[in-house]
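pls read this protein.

:::
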Amino acid sequence: MPLTDFQQQLLADLATQPPEETGYLAGGAALHFEPNSTRFSRDLNFFHDSVERVASAFARDRTQIEAAGYTLTVTLSQPGFVRAIVARGDAATRVDWAHDSAWRFMPLVRDPRGGLLLHPVDLGVNKALALVGRDEPRDFVDVLFVHDRILPFGALCWAAVGKDPGFTPLSLLELLKRRGRYHPEDFSRLDLRVPFDLVAAKESWRAALEGAESFCRSRPPDEIGCLYWSPVQQRFVMPLPNEMPTADVVPHFGTPGGVLPRLSSERTELAE
């Protein structure tokens, strides 16, 4: 994540199983998976597309973990969710096995270091929705990280209502405007690679909110809930306000299991 050495080793030991059996890594650990990221996560979150798979995956993973010399202590267990502390020697991390919807924008990503990971744009959309539901400094740090390195905040808000249709982009923004009211000590409890500049972060947050509102007011209603893919740049982008889709900016809608973008102005469909 920078991942800790212990988390990297645990992922490597679990990666000896077929990725389909272990589920996919999501949450903060997947978002900050690369060594040049900004925040260490204190847990690993594995997700599965059904409640039944959570139970069977946990049983398999527990056997694998204990056979590799770790100790595993369950702290919470209920249908569709298991939380445990995995330790070896003086090192430990929390591990969650959980159920989540299979609806996403992109297919899962394979990485030899960690098996299957949720795609960065889906991680970003999830973080935006997480910040709506809980006022956590770590989510604020992560959303700004996504805004800076993965996809501008306006595009995240526009896409997020595709995953949670209970919102409109503007209603989502109204709730998010209440976030960002933090104090320096709120971030002292996080494991950050570099000190957090709260003054600069609040300025970035203000600009992100303003840009997001301008963007969301400019988009046509029939595109609510989509991302925008640039075949030229080969990445997701946030079009300029009032820029209509062309061959250079393709609306991309989510599906169960995710879907690769089409290289045309037509809406996306399942890749073969």
In short: The domain at 5-118 is CATH 3.30.460 (Beta Polymerase; domain 2). Residues 264-272 have pLDDT under 50 and may be disordered. The first strand starts at residue 24 and ends at 26. The chain is about 40% helix and 20% strand.
